[in-house]
Design a protein that fits this description.
This protein is mainly beta. It has one domain. The protein contains one helix and five strands. The strands form two sheets. Strands 4-3-5 form a three-stranded antiparallel β-sheet. It has a two-stranded antiparallel sheet with strand order 1-2. It starts with 7 loop residues before the first strand and ends in a 6-residue tail after the last strand.
Length: about 70
Amino acid sequence: MSTRCEGYRRYGGVFSLGPVTWAQCSEEAVVMITVTQDGETKSFPACFTCWHEALETGIKVSDVRLIVEAKP
């Protein structure tokens, strides 16, 4: 059973047409990531793309645990 990533992407806004909209990532989660943002620490399933984006944007990542089995 696969778990969907709980990351979100922002579309539209400042230099593009239309209002700001947010959409949930459609990739499969491969890690449980624990982050601290706005003084709150939470864990949620994430794909490698969203994990990388969190690191790039300066979100404090305190723990990452693999949730899929390694393929031989």
